[in-house]
Amino acid sequence: QSVLTQPPSASGTPGQRVTISCSGSSSNIGSNYVYWYQQLPGTAPKLLIYRNNQRPSGVPDRFSGSKSGTSASLAISGLRSEDEADYYCAAWDDSLSGRVYVFGTGTKVTVL
Amino acid sequence: EVQLVESGGGLVQPGGSLRLSCAASGFSFSSNEMNWVRQAPGKGLEWVSYISSSATIIYYADSVKGRFTISRDNAKNSLYLQMNSLRAEDTAVYYCARDMEMGDWGQGTLVTVSS
Q1: Measured between CB atoms, which of A45, A50, A97 is closest to B45?
Q2: A100 inside 8 A of chain B by CB
């Protein structure tokens, strides 16, 4: 099944803005919402962005999501040490073999 | 407060079976879709299966289709994953996650397939 492509790593110093890209296809990002999850070391994933650009309550507005065509991106502004984590994009995929949920390859964010 | 607690993981030999459970509380379980997601050691997230609130719609990843069965008991606020014909590559932490957007996750249960 298809996988969404993310850069393996991203980094920045405290206060900087970091952007993570997510590339998909017409059957997933191109026709469905994009979600972003944050996974802190040793913990379960947490929903960070839903429906392309919406933040669940409690998620700081330093995190923002966008989508254009078959790609999406997550931006973290005012980077903080506690943002050091793995980030995954995801989307439902409507392929010929049925509906599946595909995750991105994951991006490790390091705060320098 | 939403709580999802997985159980049933453990060590199993290749070809064996295991049944995972996910106990839900703090929300209307019978009104919510549910998913299973797994993560192999040191690897990324992989979606496994989805079940609608009334269990009328079920989806599986190709990697588990024909071997795993998702089910739910709304009277017991519980989600299940029956895993048969287990392979080494099924070794992972298995999470249950609430709704199509996976807004809430359990802490996970580790399944190790090894002889």
Answers
A1: A45
A2: yes
Residues in chain B whose beta carbon is closer than 8 A to a beta carbon of chain A? 35, 37, 44-47, 50, 59, 61-63, 95, 100-108
Q: Which residue of A has its CA nearest to B94?
A: A44
What CA–CA distance (Å, rounded) separates A45 from B105?
7
Name the DSSP letter for residue A54. B
Which of A97, A101, A106 lies closest to B47 in CB terms?
A: A101
User: Which H/E stretch holds residue A49?
Assistant: strand A46-49
For every one of its 112 residues, what pLDDT tens digit does chain A have, with 9 covering 90 and above? 558 999 999 999 999 999 999 999 999 999 999 999 999 999 999 999 999 999 999 999 999 999 999 999 999 999 999 999 999 999 999 988 789 999 999 999 999 9
* Separation of alpha carbons A74 and A58, rounded Å: 17
**Assigned token pair, B29:** 């379980």
For residue range B1-14, list pLDDT tens digits in order. Answer: 999 999 999 999 99
Amino acid letter, residue B92: A
Beta strand pairing status for A71-76 and A18-23? antiparallel
Place of tokens 């839903």: A50
Q: How far apart are CA B21 and CA B107, in angstroms?
A: 12
- Closest to A44 measured CA to CA, from B37, B21, B33: B37
> What CA–CA distance (Å, rounded) separates A50 from A103?
13
What is chain B's length? 115
The radius of gyration of chain B's CA atoms, rounded to the nearest angstrom, is: 13
Q: What span, in angstroms and rounded, lies between the C-alpha atoms of A67 and B8?
A: 38
